[in-house]
Each structure stands twice: as structure tokens, then as C-alpha cells.
Specification:
This protein is an alpha/beta fold. It has two domains: 166 residues, D-Maltodextrin-Binding Protein, domain 2 (3-Layer(aba) Sandwich), CATH 3.40.190; 155 residues, Periplasmic binding protein-like II (D-Maltodextrin-Binding Protein, domain 2), CATH 3.40.190.10. Strands 6, 7, 8, 9, 10, 11, 13 and 14 form an eight-stranded mixed beta sheet that branches. Helix 2 packs across helix 11, helix 6 runs parallel beside helix 8 and helix 8 packs across helix 13.
């Protein structure tokens, strides 16, 4: 008995000497106390992200309650700008972010493949599906459906829009209300737009007929999901194609005229990939934030803003729960490098231009550039 009391006293004294030990999350190794201590001593965390800061305001605030000594500098920018800025700063030898987080999955994988990411085995790894992690360097944070949206005030009463084939049929029907009122990405300017179209090409036999139909309806082209959804919500467009479901659900809550469609033939599922650069100025703080993002606590904050969890133990937002829909996850890994091959990209964009022009020629006119 005396030995046990002595042991308990020793443990208590150890905890008193190391206050970080008591803050180690359940099921994490005891050595994680050193990560917490190091992260707080670094005192700073720089995040470059393609996720709108408004969507993660609560998540960042919650992270700061856990680690109040870490100042968070969160900068949001387009996925393409983030990628280009990171490469420019890296080439110049200037400090970059501690963590990159973007929905342009192929660009993130290219950075990993080119040696820009450090390896870190998150304690949350066991809770993730196999498709969401590559080499412990690229981490899928969300599992978000790619959807269509339409404005119920503009789409003809009873017009079917439940699948990609329905969308194609509407385009080929040359419905007058759709002329100049279909919105999607400009794949030449939007990294995520190019990614989603290239994934459609892997699944669908009808992609290039669809692109020709977009040209025939004088498609409006944008560089961001937010711009497409805002255009449909405002009634300037009737249908938005291939938009990120989380942004669509957020807008639907504000505007009951907006309808979100998960195509029943197949629904792509994308993930916002996080990576920690090899030369991150504050690597321990980055480890803490990545682990928090992947934790059930962090994931619930994302779900609250309609970004479905990559974990199976955190429920998906009700509005995005699949019903008789074939979900097709875009795997985090080297297969994404194919679409970044320059010859592949050039051939794809040439096919896009030819199909748009052929469609536009069938009715006269050309695609409309949306607000940038």
C-alpha cells in the first residue's frame, strides 16, 4: 500500500511538472504532450486555405480555446492562387504557410509528389477511410458531394433534374429559359472546375455532349463555386453545374428558391486536402491543427457549416445525406497526377474549346464570361 501511494504521489508530481500531459486527448500517446508544448512555444500558426474564412470562423475560435497561446493567421484565396503563391514563395526562399488546405485535390497531390510536404502520422489516422490519406503527407479533411443547383423560379415547372443525363437532356432540348442562364466553372481558370470535369470524364460517356450542350446554351463561366451559386441564387442563371455541396446548402438556407440536387446516377465526392510543407515555420502548431481538423470535435464544426465529415463516426448534414445515390469519392493519391500532366491537360482543354464552339455554332453566339 505504501508503494502504491508513493507511486501515485510520484505521478502527481510528474503531472505538476508537466502541465501539458493533462491536455493530451484521449487515445493519443503520452508523448503528444511534447507536441502541445512545442506548438505553444512556437506561438503562431499560418494557414493558407481555399475555404472561405466565414465558413471556418467557429472552428478557428474553438481551436484557440484549446491552444490559446497560438496566434492563428488564416488567409483564404482561390485554389489556383494558393498553389501559385506557394511555389513563388518557395522558389524565392521566403517563409510560406504552416499548413495548406484546399479543394484543388490534384494541385495538392502534385505538391506532395514534388517533395513539398512533410510526413506526419496523425493520431487520428485510424478513424479515416483509406482513400483520405496518402503517404501521411496529404490528408482528406472533408467528404463533400459535388452537386447541381437550380432556381425554382426559373426552371420550367416539372422539368426533371435528378441526374447528369437529365441535365444533358435539358441542355439539348434548347429550352429558351436556359439560353444564357446555365452557370459552371471556366476549367481554364478554375483549378477545381478542371478537376471536377476531368473526373466526370472518367465516369460519364456523355461529358463532351454535355459540354457541347453548355455551348449551345451560351454557358456562363466562373472561377469559383461561390460565384456560380450566387449567380443562380440571384436569378441571373437558372442552373449551376458541378458546385460544392457545402456552399450550396449554406446558400439554400438563406434562399428557399435554391434547390440542391445530388445526381442519382453518380455523385462525385471531393475532399479539401491539408498538407504541411517541409519547411513550415511552425511545424508543431501545424501538427496540432491538423489533428484537430481530423478529430471528431473539429469535424463536427465543419459539419455545422455543411462540410460533411471524412469520418464515419460523425454524421453527415441532413441535407446532404445520400438517398439512392451512387457516391464516388475522388481518392487522395497519385491517380490525381494524371490530370495535371501537361499533355493531358492540353488535350482536355482543346476538347473543351472544340465542344463549346460546336455547341455555340449550332445556335449562334458564344459562352458568356461570368463575373470574376
Amino acid at each position: 500500500m505504501i508503494f502504491c501511494l508513493g507511486a501515485l504521489a510520484f505521478i502527481g508530481a510528474g503531472c505538476a511538472r508537466n502541465p501539458y500531459a493533462a491536455r493530451v486527448p484521449d487515445n493519443y500517446p503520452a508523448s503528444y504532450a511534447a507536441t502541445i508544448e512545442s506548438g505553444e512555444q512556437e506561438g503562431s500558426l499560418v494557414i493558407w486555405s481555399a475555404t472561405d474564412a466565414r465558413q471556418v470562423r467557429d472552428l478557428l475560435a474553438d481551436f484557440r480555446t484549446l491552444y490559446p497561446r497560438i496566434r492563428v493567421d488564416y488567409r483564404d484565396m482561390s485554389a489556383r492562387d494558393l498553389y501559385d503563391h506557394f511555389l513563388t514563395e518557395s522558389a524565392a526562399g521566403r517563409p510560406t504557410a504552416d499548413l495548406l488546405w484546399t479543394s484543388a485535390m490534384d494541385l495538392q497531390i502534385k505538391l506532395v509528389n514534388d517533395g513539398y510536404a512533410q510526413t506526419y502520422a496523425s493520431p487520428e489516422k485510424a478513424a479515416l477511410p483509406g482513400w483520405a490519406n496518402w503517404k501521411d503527407q496529404a490528408w482528406g479533411i472533408t467528404a463533400e458531394p459535388i452537386v447541381m443547383v437550380y432556381n425554382r423560379r426559373l426552371l420550367p415547372q416539372g422539368a426533371p433534374l435528378a441526374s447528369h443525363l437529365d441535365f444533358l437532356r435539358l441542355l439539348e432540348a434548347h429550352v429558351p429559359v436556359l439560353d444564357g442562364k446555365v452557370a459552371t466553372y471556366d476549367p481554364g481558370e478554375s483549378a477545381v472546375g478542371y478537376l471536377y470535369l476531368s473526373q466526370d470524364d472518367l465516369v460519364s460517356r456523355h461529358l463532351w455532349r454535355t459540354v457541347q450542350g453548355l455551348g449551345a446554351n451560351h454557358v456562363r463561366l466562373f472561377t469559383t463555386t461561390e460565384a456560380i451559386i450566387e449567380d443562380v441564387s440571384a436569378g441571373r442563371s437558372a442552373i449551376g453545374y458541378n458546385v460544392v455541396g457545402s456552399y450550396a446548402i449554406d446558400e439554400m438556407r438563406r434562399n428557399p428558391d435554391l434547390v440542391v440536387v445530388q445526381p442519382r446516377d453518380y455523385t462525385l465526392v471531393m475532399s479539401r486536402i491539408a498538407m504541411i510543407p517541409v519547411h513550415a515555420p511552425h511545424p508543431s502548431a501545424a501538427h496540432l491543427f491538423l489533428d484537430y481538423l481530423l478529430s471528431a470535435r473539429g469535424q463536427r464544426h465543419l459539419v455545422a457549416h455543411s462540410m460533411p465529415s471524412v469520418r464515419t463516426d460523425v454524421a453527415m448534414p441532413a441535407a446532404l445525406r445520400p438517398a439512392a445515390v451512387q457516391m464516388r469519392a475522388i481518392r487522395v493519391g497519385p491517380a490525381l497526377l494524371v490530370v495535371q500532366d501537361q499533355l493531358t491537360r492540353r488535350g482536355f482543354m482543346n476538347q473543351w474549346s472544340r465542344s463549346i464552339a460546336a455547341g455555340a455554332g449550332s445556335r449562334g453566339g458564344q459562352a458568356v464570361a461570368g463575373d470574376r
